[in-house]
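4.2 Preliminary Data

To establish feasibility before requesting continued support, the project team ran the inverse folding procedure on a target of 106 residues. The structure was first converted into the token representation described in Section 3, and no sequence information of any kind was made available to the design step. The complete token record follows.
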């Protein structure tokens, strides 16, 4: 059972994009010490980001353009699919000094 649970996130990454051969990827961005970890260098529409809050504080991952707003209670994870290409600045609604940027290719 343990090994199956480890395999599930991998299986979920094996997603066909349209009729092409591109595979969506799973990435994790960890928040720790009141800071967002580095975003993935290469990110595409359809990829999945798992936001992981390792802090004892509640955070959010909120897009300035309002395209996403993920609530992250302490020690929780939130999952989203990247929906649009472009540069998306994000921040935490509770701690506006926490910021980051996603660079999404089509
Ligand atoms: Cu915060």
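Position-by-position output of the design step:
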């Amino acid at each position: 059972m343990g090994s199956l649970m480890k395999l599930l996130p991998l299986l979920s990454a094996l997603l066909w994009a349209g009729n092409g051969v591109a595979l969506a990827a799973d990435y994790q961005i960890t928040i720790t010490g009141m800071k967002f970890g580095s975003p993935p260098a290469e990110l595409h529409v359809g990829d999945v980001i798992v936001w992981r809050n390792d802090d004892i504080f509640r955070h959010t991952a909120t897009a300035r353009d309002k395209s996403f707003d993920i609530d992250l209670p302490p020690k929780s994870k939130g999952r989203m699919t990247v929906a649009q290409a472009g540069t998306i600045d994000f921040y935490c609604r509770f701690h506006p000094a926490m910021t980051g940027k996603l660079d999404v290719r089509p």
